[in-house]
Amino acid sequence: MSKDKNEYLTTGEFAKICGIPKHILFHYDQIKLFQPEIIKENGYRYYSFRQFDTFSIISALKRLGMPLKEIKKYMDERNPAKLVDLLEQKSNEVSKEIKKLKNTKREIDSLKELTENALSVDYNMIETAYHKSMKALCSTLMDNDNDNSYPNFLTELIAFRNNSNASMIDFLGASLTIDNIRDKRFDSFSYLYTKTNNADKKNNTLVRKEGWYLQVYYKGSYPRISEMYTEIMQYAKEHQINLGKNAYEEYLIFEIGTKNRDDYVTLILVEIEDDFSSKIKGPDNDQSLL
C-alpha cells in the first residue's frame, strides 16, 4: 500500500495536478475516454503519474476543437501513422484559424484607426484636400436613377457584405454622382465599396482618382446630411470651383461606435475638376494631403 501511496493519486489529487475539476475525470471515466489505472474493490479510484501524459494529449486535442467522441476513437486506435494524419489535419485547421484571426485583427485595427482619426478632426468644415488614388472592391451598379429607400439600401448593403466577405466592422463607403446631388437626390447611390488589399484582383473595382476634392468630416445623423451637401454646393459656387462627376461618402463612426446618431461621422469627398490644380501651388503645400 505504501507503494500505491507513492505511485498513485486519488481522483482529487490527479485533478489538482491537471488543473481541472474532479467532475471532468468522472465524466471521462463514464464515457471510457480516460479511466483510472486502478479501481479497488471498495470503488476507490487511483490514477498513476504515468497517465498524466495521456491526459495531456486528450486536453491538447480538446483545445484544438476535437469532439470527445473523435478523441476516444483516436485514443483507442492510435498508432504513429494515425498520429501523423491527425497532426496534418489539425495543422491545416490551425492555419485556417490563424488566417481568420489575422483578418479579424486587421478589421479591428482598421476600425480603431478610423475611429481615432474621426475623433481628431474638425467637423462640418468645408475645405479643399488632395487625395491619392484609391482602389476599392465595389458592389454592382445600383439604380442611381431612383432614390434608395432605407429598406432598399439595407438590402443592397447586406448583399454587398455577403458577396465581398466584409464584416460589420469593415470600412464601408458609397459613391454618388454630383448630378444627383444637384438634383437633391442624396440617397441615389451608384456603388457601395470597401477597401481591400487585392481590389484589383476582383471583378468589381472602384477607382477613386487622384486629385483635389472638397472635403468635409460631417458629424450628424444621416437624414440631415442633405443640409451639408447644400452647403458644399453653395461653397463651390461662391468660390467658383468647378466640380467633377462623383462624390464619395466614407462612414467613420456609425452604429457600432455610438448609440447617438447625431454623433455619426461621415467623410464626404466631392470631386473637383482637373483644372483646379492650375489655380493653386500644389499638394505639397497643403496640410490635407492624404
UniProtKB/TrEMBL annotation:
Question: Which residue range or ranges hold the HTH merR-type domain?
Answer: 8-77
List the coiled-coil residues: 84-121
Q: Does the keyword Plastid apply?
A: no
Spell out the molecular function terms from Gene Ontology.
DNA binding; DNA-binding transcription factor activity
Record bears the keyword Transmembrane helix: no
What keywords appear on the UniProt entry? Coiled coil, DNA-binding
One Pfam family assigned to this protein is MerR_1
Please identify the protein, giving its name as recorded.
Answer: DNA-binding transcriptional MerR regulator
Q: What organism is the protein native to?
A: [Clostridium] celerecrescens 18A
